[in-house]
Amino acid sequence: MAWVGFAFGLVVLAVVATSVLFTLVIPRAIPSRLSVFVGRQVVRRAFLFVADRFDSFERKDAILALSGPMALITLFLVWLSGFLLGYSLLLWPLAHHSLATALRESGSSIFTLGTAASPHNAGATVIDYAAAGTGLLVVALEIAYLPTIYASFNRRETLVTVLQSRAGVPAWGPEILARHQLVGLVGNLPAFYREWEYWAADVAESHANYPVLISFRSPHPLRSWVLAIVSVLDAAALQLSLNPQTAPTDARLCLRMGFVALRDIAAVLKIPFDPDPRPDAPIQLAYEDYLDGVRRLEETGFELERTAEEAWPHFRGWRVNYESIGYAPGHYTSAAPGPWSGPRRRDVEIEPLRPRDRTPDDPEGARKVK
Q1: Where does 21-121 have alpha helices with state H?
Q2: What's the pLDDT tens digit per position in 312-335?
Q3: pTM here?
């Protein structure tokens, strides 16, 4: 039995070491099965089960905000436990111990406590040193990993936070164009699209290489990186389809980078998508909802070169590239159920919150911003 355990220990060490290598060392979207199982199947489902017991979206968000960090901590503990078990099974036949004693010696080495050691035995000594080195290496890699994760999170959230003043919360594509019109900043839209093009590239790189970031939620319950990118892409698609002559080229570049980023993330989450959809393919957004968005623009005086009916085929042709792969991460992360963002788990759509327009002539803000 001891030598059967030795063989099984080699398998355990190989699986855990591969998970550590793919998760912490290799800067490429190669998630290990162990990390996927722990983060998505165990931790995420446990938090979703608890969150679904509450009706308030704010309470759900507070619970789910812990799922990303807990997935990191749980995976770290699973790695250490796996190495502890694997090295114990290797020591079992070589040190001529019982399995319980081998576990104690393995733990002593991995955590560099030095409280237990084998008799002078070359094979057992090598395993003790390997276990000690592995423990130090895993802890060091985890410590180096956390600043990278949180630096990427902070970069992502900066523009998501800025978007609140331009799109309300939850973010909505037509609201972006409407607010730029209301405050006389339509000319700022090219720079806006450029910022979000680079933001999308950064998110594509960081979230594909470090998938745990997908589950990290924004500090505000109604903000979400998924809603942010979908709303920006909707704004660009609306402007290009409604105003083909005056829409900035940056809108097209932003759209392209945006759905490339969503495709990279969809590949990590194993979400199927058509890489080259037809522009006349059906989309989930209802035509009536699209008309509501165009009406929002008309209410603010946003100049339109095409009617809503004329622009619809062009808007649909853009949206078919990112709709399904934008909806799926929103459902996966249980993002706030904003307009045009797809279905959610047991949540009712939340309309964007808009500030009152308080002025010296109307201090109570009785006339809301439309």
Answers
A1: 33-36, 45-51, 57-64, 67-94, 99-110
A2: 999 999 999 999 999 999 999 999
A3: 0.88
